[in-house]
Each structure stands twice: as structure tokens, then as C-alpha cells.
Amino acid sequence: MDDDLWALIEPFLPPWPEKAAGPRPVPDRLCLQGILYVLHNDIAWQLLPHEMGFGSGQTCWRRLERWQQAGVSDQLHRLLLSRLHAAGKLDWSRACVDGSHVRAKKGEPTPVRRRSTGRRRAANIT
Q1: pLDDT at 112 (0 to 100)
Q2: Closest listed residue to residue 35, CA positions, set 15, 56, 21
Q3: Contacts of 37 (CB under 8 A, 6+ apart)
Q4: Which terminal Cβ of the chain has fewer Cβ within 10 Å, N or C?
């Protein structure tokens, strides 16, 4: 990951708690690189190579979970879309919307149940 991209992402990441228990955490930049490595190579978190210095797969997964709960990915998604749009790099005519991007309405009225017009099943006589 180049420095320009990291400078764009870093301000969105929540700070690490001052009095966190356990050893000093893996730096956010390395965790992000580990997360991107897992996603790009489509491997299980457990298969993230330790020798690459990203920390364990579990560490990267926990950091991703922490960032998700803080809303980091939604904020980054909006920022990157706006920058790409401003640069004229998006073709909105090919965009589609699905349930992963737009929340489904909750509390919609359920359809009224209608009585069946079919015959009833025969009684069990055994």
C-alpha cells in the first residue's frame, strides 16, 4: 500500500485504547495490508502467512471487526466513490443497487392470509 492511500485511510481508523490489555498491537497499516492480502487472495484468515509481518489472521480479523463496528468501511466507501466520481472515473450508467448497499424496508405490512379454495386433506384414520 502506497503512502498516499494510507494517508487517505488512516484518519478514519479509530485510535487504539490507551489502557488496552495484552501486548502492544500490530500497527494498523500492517493489519490493513493483511486484511487486503486475505481478501485479494481469497484465503482463509488462518492461512495468512506469519512471515509477511501482518500479524496473525485472527489479529487482522479482529481489527477488521473493530473497524466495521466503528463504521470505517462505510465512510471510506463514500469517500472513495466521491473522489472517483469527481475524477470522472465512474460510469454510473452501469451501476446497480442490491440489498448489500440499500437497507430493506422494515415494518412493511404482511400480505393478508386468504382461505384456501382447495379441498381439505382427508382425516388420518390410522
Answers
A1: 67
A2: 56
A3: 48, 52, 54
A4: C
